[in-house]
Amino acid sequence: MNPLSTPPHGLSIPQELWERVGEAYSTPGRAYHAIHHIVSVLRTYDEVARDQGWIHPAEVFLALVYHDAIYSAGAANNEERSAAFARREIERWFPPRTLEADMVDRLIQLTAHHGSLERGAVTREEALFLDCDTAILGAPPEEFDEYDRQIAEEYGALPIEVFERGRRAFLGRLLAKDHVFLSDYFEKRLGEAARANLRRRVQR
Hints:
The chain has helices at 15-24, 35-51, 57-66, 78-93, 101-110, 124-134, 141-154, 160-176, 184-202. The chain is mainly alpha-helical. It has one domain (15-202): 3'5'-cyclic nucleotide phosphodiesterase, catalytic domain (Catalytic domain of cyclic nucleotide phosphodiesterase 4b2b, Orthogonal Bundle).
C-alpha cells in the first residue's frame, strides 16, 4: 500500500512501513483523520516543496505522515502518542543518525497547539508544516463543509450542543486572529477563503 506522496530525494521508504501507516489510519473512530487526510497534506507538502522548498524535507515529510497516527477524538495525548509512535518507526526502519527524530517528534507535538500559536512562536519551517495540516480551512466551501461534517462524526459521542459550543469557540478563535495561517505563504494563498469558511460556519 502506497497511496501517499513520493518521498523526498534520499528517503527510501519500505513497503511494509506504508502498510503499517495504512493500518494506523484505519483504526475505528476516524472520519476526517484517516488516510485521505494524509494524502491531502502530503499533496500540500509537495506544493510547498515546489514553491518554497523545505530545509529538512525528510523530517517534515515523516512528521506529516505520522502526525495523526494515534487518534481518538478529544483525547489529550494524541499528539504525544503519535510522536512516540513515529520515533519508534524511525528507529525501526531507518539507519541510525540518518534522520533527526527529535525534530519529527517536535513537529508532531506542535500540532497539539493549532489555534493557540502566534506568529513568531515557531520557525518558518514549523509554520509551513503546521499550515499544511490546516490548509483545509481555506478549501473550496464544499470541501470545507465535508471536513466539518467529518469532524462532527468523529465527535458523535458528544451531545450535539456540547460539540457545537466547543467547535464554534475553536473556529471563532481562529477567525478573531489577524492571520488564520502562521506563514505568509499560506495566508496569501488561502487566508481570505479560510476566513469566509470560518465566518459561514460560526454563523450557522
